[in-house]
Amino acid sequence: MASPRAEEDERPPADEGSARLRRLTAVRCWARRYSAEWRSIVARTLVVAAVGAAAGIYFIVYRPDQRVDDATARRAIQAASDGAVAVLSYSYDHLNRDFDNAKSHLSGDFLAYYKKFSDDVVGPTAQQGQLTATAKVIRAAVSELHPDSAVVLVFVDQTTSSLQKKDPEKTQSAVLVTLKKVDDSWLIAKFDPTT
After folding, report:
1. Using one digit for the tens of pLDDT, what is the confidence trace for 126-154?
2. What is the largest CA-CA distance in the chain?
3. Is the pTM of this model over 0.85?
4. Which residues contact 101 (CB under 8 A, 6 or more apart)?
5. What is the DSSP code (8-state) at residue 184?
6. Where along the chain do its domains lie?
7. Per-residue pLDDT tens over the stretch 106-131
8. Angstrom distance (rounded) from CA 10 to CA 35
9. For the stretch 125-156, what's the b/e string if a residue is b when 16 or more beta carbons lie within 10 angstroms of its beta carbon?
10. CATH architecture assigned to 68-194
11. Could you give the CA distance from residue 6 to residue 128 in angstroms, rounded to a whole number?
């Protein structure tokens, strides 16, 4: 059996035990405080994530400017029809006015192409042969429709008269008109005759 003196040596002094107890209490208090803060942080993060998901769904799926409807389709058809008539109609006696009208319906690379083609080919040919061309849209329908672009199939009757041909010549054609929305207006970006 151990002597009473040896047992006293093995036991921690009273101050050391109370210090351990204070440290343990401090650790528990710290753990409670930080676990409460962590719960609060996790809850806030979940709320922010839910709001972010809802906003994402709204902007991707529902956003009003992303929707296309019948009114949008009608505006695209009207723009394609008006543009096709403007591009295919001109008269030798007021070419500049007709070309400027057509250019107001165009955008991008097609506008640059049309400027060059009308100045280099159509203008001189129309002046020389006293050409007059008049186009009329018979039918038009949307082939593709997106919030900022559309493809419209346009069926056109074109009547051409010249100095050499007194009787007007009538032709029918179909054109795929690709439109782009620029500043809330539909403008022709491509003009592809079909066969």
Report:
1. 999 999 999 999 999 999 998 889 999 99
2. 139
3. no
4. 86
5. T
6. 1-62, 68-194
7. 999 999 999 999 999 999 999 999 99
8. 36
9. ebeeeebbbbbebeebebeebeeeebbbbbbb
10. Roll (3.10)
11. 128
Distant-in-sequence, close-in-space partners of 161: CB < 8 Å, separation ≥ 6: 131, 132, 167, 168, 169
The kind and range of the H/E element at 126 are: helix 123-129
Tokens representing 93 are 């006696």
Phi, psi of 2 (to 5 degrees): -85, 150
Tokens at residue 78, please?
């009207």
Pick from 127, 48, 124: which is nearest to 92 by CA? 127
Neighbour count for residue 178 (Cβ, 10 Å): 18
Tell me what percent of the chain is helix, strand and coil, each rounded to the nearest 5.
55, 30, 15
Q: In this structure, are residues 155 and 137 in contact, taking their beta carbons and an 8 Å threshold?
A: yes
